[in-house]
Specification:
With 372 residues, the chain is α/β, with parallel strands linked by helices. The chain has helices at 20-31, 38-43, 56-59, 67-93, 97-100, 117-124, 143-157, 181-189, 264-280, 300-309, 314-327, 334-346, and strands at 4-12, 17-19, 49-51, 101-108, 132-137, 162-170, 192-201, 211-213, 231-239, 247-251, 256-260, 292-295, 353-360, 364-371. The strands form three sheets. Strands 1, 4, 5, 6, 7, 8, 9, 12, 13 and 14 form a ten-stranded mixed sheet that branches. Strands 2-3 form a two-stranded antiparallel ribbon. Strands 10-11 form a two-stranded antiparallel sheet.
């Protein structure tokens, strides 16, 4: 059976850049004035700048909008990013690609609407009427892997088709009037972004891999690597229900509410070595054989602990740290931002491997093995 090949990748983000220190000084300092360690939390987050649909310095100055306004903003910005990313991958793929797209899979955990945004985008881009669509909601930071696995299944069933697969998250619309250390951590970390892949089988080598980072203001840059795209060799999933309490995401009257235990990095550190072994063993590989790593930056401690347990070098952790610094944690879109960074900045050599991983409620651990 042919493996799934990445033919094009685009990322997008809202136009507003929010420097972390400015956001703290102008908004969060007052918001968390009763939280003793608030400034330390923001300074230690690893985030320097985020792209945010709702700039907290202005969006919440007059209070906290109701859930209806938040969902309207989610849909508006999800579609804006989707137009950039879907249009970008179809343009990169060239003539004939649009007609070959047989499946369209997207995920988001920061909003809901019906018709779902994939229907709107499919109509706007003139995709096939018999298009198979899947919208994956509420699965958290690991949802890009659910998108990928659905896309892999589609290609296995119909190898002559192409699949659009991506995510879009608008985390900034969910700030809450809750002045606790836990919510300070959430508000210090999360940003907004979207990403889209075009996937085909490994026979689709006539389309060069093309990666690009873009924003809704046309300020993005990017380069193609001039050769066939990387291949997804396999995925591995594990859920640890004994840690169900460690991370949650619920809809409440005013907004969505996230809980995030400070023990999450410790849980992951204890599980990460056997988890990676189970991903790699079927392919005859070990952690030492992997050149490139994409570790979902749920926070700086997760990067630190996973890196230490797997004996990863600073260079191998650099893509995760760079995305955290420049974008924040963008939930399900983050791992695709990291893959884009690896392709553009690390410039993998043919034959090198990468492991991508992300973590979400459950606790759920997701991973994928990539060969360049």
């Amino acid at each position: 059976m042919s493996a799934a090949r990445l033919l094009a990748l685009r990322t997008a983000a809202p136009p507003t850049a929010v420097p972390q220190q400015s956001a703290y000084d102008e908004h969060y300092r007052a918001m968390f004035r009763t939280v003793p360690r608030a400034e330390e939390i923001f300074r230690g987050s690893g985030v320097h700048t985020r792209r945010m649909a709702w700039d907290p310095r202005t969006a919440y100055a007059g209070g906290y909008p109701p859930i209806k306004a938040r969902m309207e903003a989610w849909q508006e910005h999800f579609l804006a990013m989707g137009r950039r990313t879907v249009g970008g991958v179809l343009e990169a793929a060239g003539p004939g690609a649009r007609e070959r797209v047989g499946s369209f899979v997207v995920a988001s955990c920061t909003g809901y609407a019906g018709p779902t945004p994939d229907i709107v985008l499919a109509e706007e881009f003139g995709l096939r009427q018999d298009l198979r669509r899947t919208f994956i909601g509420h699965m958290g930071c690991n949802a890009a892997f659910n998108v990928l696995k659905t896309a892999l299944d589609a290609l296995a069933a119909r190898p002559g088709e192409l699949v659009l697969a991506g995510t879009g998250e608008v985390c900034s619309v969910h700030q809450r009037p809750e002045h606790t250390a836990e919510q300070a951590v959430v508000n210090a970390l999360f940003g907004d972004a979207g990403a889209m892949m075009l996937l085909g089988t490994d026979t689709d080598t006539d389309t060069d891999t093309d990666t690009d980072t873009d924003t809704d203001t046309d300020t993005g840059t990017g380069t193609g690597d001039g050769g066939p795209g990387p291949v997804f060799l396999g995925t591995h999933t594990e859920t640890h229900p004994e840690t169900l309490h460690a991370m949650s995401w619920h809809i409440e009257d005013s907004a969505f509410r996230m809980t995030l235990s400070p023990y999450v990095p410790f849980y992951l550190a204890e599980s990460i070595e056997p988890f990676v072994k189970r991903l790699l063993a079927p392919h005859g590989l070990e952690a030492g054989d992997i050149t490139h790593w994409g570790v979902h930056p749920g926070g700086p401690k997760i990067i630190d602990f996973v890196g230490e347990r797997l004996a990863l070098t600073p260079a191998q952790l650099a893509p995760s740290r760079a995305v955290l610094a420049g974008h924040g944690n963008c939930s399900s879109a983050t791992i695709l931002l990291i893959l884009d960074h690896i392709l553009r900045e690390s410039r993998p050599r043919p034959g090198e491997h990468a492991v991508l991983m992300a973590f979400g409620p459950g606790l759920t651990m997701e991973s994928a093995l990539v060969r360049f």
